[in-house]
Amino acid sequence: MKAIRNFFEKTKPHVQKGAKYHWLHSTHDAVFTLFFVQKNTSKSGTHIHDFIDLKRTMGIVVLALVPALLFGMYNVGYQHFGALGELGTAGLMDMFLFGLLKVLPIIIVSYGVGLGIEFIFAQFRGHEVNEGFLVSGLLIPMVMPVNTPLWMIAIAVAFAVIFGKEVFGGTGMNIWNPALIARAFLFFAYPGQMSGDSVWISASGVDKMVDGFTGATPMALAAAGHTDALNTWHAFVGLIPGSIGETSTIAILIGALVLIVTGIGSWRIMLSTVLGGLFMGILLNIFAGDNTYMALPFYDHLIIGGFAFGAVFMATDPVSGSQTVKGKWIYGFLIGVLAILIRVVNPAYPEGVMLAILLMNTFAPLIDHYVVESNIKRRLKRAKATI
Amino acid sequence: MSKHFKLKRGLDIRLKGAAEAVLENAPAPTTVALKPIDFPGLTPKLSVKAEAQVKAGDALFFDKYNPEIFFTSPVSGTVKAVNRGERRKILEVVVEADGKNEFASFTKADPLKLNRDQITGQLLTSGLWPFFKQRPYGTLAKPSDQPKNIFISGFDSSPLAPDFEFIFKNDIAAIQTGINALSKLTDGKVYLGLSDKTANSIFSGLKNVEVNTFSGPHPAGNVGIQIHKVGPINKGELVWTISIQAVAYIGRLFETGKLDLSKTIALAGSEVKAPKYLKTIHGAEIGSLVKGKTKQEGTERIISGNVLTGRKVEADDYLGYFAQQITVIPEGDHYEFMGWAEPGFGKYSASKAFFSSLFPKKEYVLDANMNGGERAFVLSGQYEKFLPMDILPVYLIKAIMANDIDKMEQLGIYEVVEEDLALCEYACTSKIKVQEILREGLDTMVKEVG
Prior knowledge:
The structure holds two protein chains of two kinds. Chain A is an all-alpha fold. Chain A has one domain (54-207, 214-373). Chain A has helices spanning 2-11, 25-35, 54-84, 92-125, 132-142, 150-164, 178-189, 191-194, 218-223, 232-237, 249-262, 267-286, 307-314, 325-345, 353-386; one strand at residues 36-37. Chain A is globular and about 70 Å long. Chain B is α/β, with parallel strands linked by helices. Chain B folds into two domains: 4-11 and 27-256, no CATH class; 370-448, no CATH class. Helix content of chain B is 20%, strand content 21%. Chain B is built from ten helices and 21 strands. Chain B has helices at residues 116-126, 164-167, 172-183, 223-230, 244-256, 287-290, 393-401, 405-410, 422-427, 434-448; strands spanning 4-6, 23-25, 31-34, 44-46, 53-54, 59-63, 66-72, 77-84, 90-97, 133-135, 139-140, 150-153, 190-195, 210-215, 239-241, 262-268, 276-281, 301-304, 311-313, 325-329, 336-337. In chain B, a hairpin with a 6-residue loop joins strand 18 (301-304) and strand 19 (311-313). At the A-B interface, helix 2, strand 1, helix 3 and helix 15 of A face strand 21, helix 9 and helix 10 of B. Strand 1 of chain A pairs antiparallel with strand 21 of chain B.
């Protein structure tokens, strides 16, 4: 430990401006601060500072993602052996290890490409490396279908980091959630590979699937009118085909609990998104007629597809989401409404959550603008009242 | 009509080392000094040269742009040095006390029988005028202005703050005289804010003043918060604020005809051996107050003022103009391995991201470490929790960063000064220097709008 510290302390002068290795400055700072909270003390302003920093904040989000990630790995194996018809013989560890080996490369590629680009941009800008990608880099694999080729992951990450974030000025300045940008990029750039029934199940090396096995997600089935195929309990636990991290509502709820208890994630956005989803679900139920998808019980919408994952981990991104208290309620509610609406009514896209969140990301500044304006108006009114 | 205001937002940071209700006479300082940097925007011009003899109440320097505002010596003695910084900016004017306690003489009179000009004149020549601050901007009040109201806070809610009920218990008569003088300076009212925590406050019997009570965490004791609740400042309006200490000074001046700037301060903080109250004088040398009283002399951080708004000082520095306490905390200039990833049972935090939030009653030792690097704004909804005003602090700070004067005005810059947003700076995940940014914004407003 002391050796590491000495190494970083000794090398520090060599990465300062004008020194030979200045091009390593951001990298040096990022790694050094990762290992050690620095010894710099307050020079002006308040003398004490809260122990919380961005590393802690992002660390907690990553922690909240872990249950969903671990379950996702297990589910990759479960779906694989399910497709082979070997669920009876494969053990829990077999399934988990199979999933781990499938998912780990995706995570490595995501972090490798993303952090590489972040480090380069930070160095060019003369900034510290921002911790935001620690979360984005894990979110991206979790919203991908397990069969996505690694080269596509790499391209999507690069696109998301450069065009989703850095062109706007880096972390804190981006308009859209970078992880969803990655997903949307693949969805529109490679629709052939990114939809259909085969991408959700890792079936490499499988010659023949069991009879009647399609690999379709519950949503694809529902869109095709087969709502009766949905097993609510399976969907809630997460033993259904879907993107790696999004299937288990239980694991996501554990994450939500972590975010809410620590105050890192906005409970207002989570709650209002769920309320919005329920509202739209009920509305569709009422006007369903003989449309089976519209008649899907409104509560089932919360547990299939990426709704829960989106509400807990995507909509709550503090940078791309609404930032005022009132704004958060409106923003979340509209995400819920739009997600279900797009999901059910639009035949072209089987999933609406991603598009709903991206759309509301776009409108979040507008919502905030009106909240701020109302504050200004209230203050003006007060001024007139006293004159 | 006394009103009660309940504040919900804010935070009482629980620090170790609150001052015990024990009063000790600090040794008389050999030197005292006035520091123009205690007044944002002040350009001082010297009235005396080094080696000049002065009495307590003789002018040391004055405001270049309002030459009738004098800053006077708290003691009699010799002007020892005028210490200057970059571009010959005056940092401090030091007076070596001669121990004779000679006073310049001023009019002894009942302020209720004087008119506004007489009172103003006496306050200006005696050097008590600079204790008046104006809102907006928190700058020196101008004698020619007519304030809508004058506000005084009767309690300090900041971390380890002194108990005003204790330090002013023998000053009540002077404070009453002072308030009588204030009541002549405004056509409006003089307001006094008290905490509802102290039943039977020593201040509750004061006359010619409207008393309001406040409950809730810091910054409830900030006069700016109290103004916001009682009668918020709008564009074009002007109020004055003054500390209860200065009101006592004013009272003593009119009662005795002398400038008596003795004061009681709290010596507090985790690094003080026995935190207690000290009787000393305005502008006293820090060494005279802390020497031999702290645990690790030379390595700790001494703050003239509280941990949120105070100024870092060394033993050879001087007590700030408005300081009512000295706080001593560890400097904290050490590395911590993976500190950000610890469970954090002993790490007090305004957030709930550390296990310390399970122990809401414990007191903590906090040091001056930054605990992280500066980043762009990432989190939202953080600042609002610590500002009990109808103001959106993040949007205000962003407007200042963008130098957008219209927006600053609309978002309420007239109502706040640095101390009101200090908690936001403490709690900020991105370690943004909120107070510094706000002062830049206030300076811009002074320059552009006036």
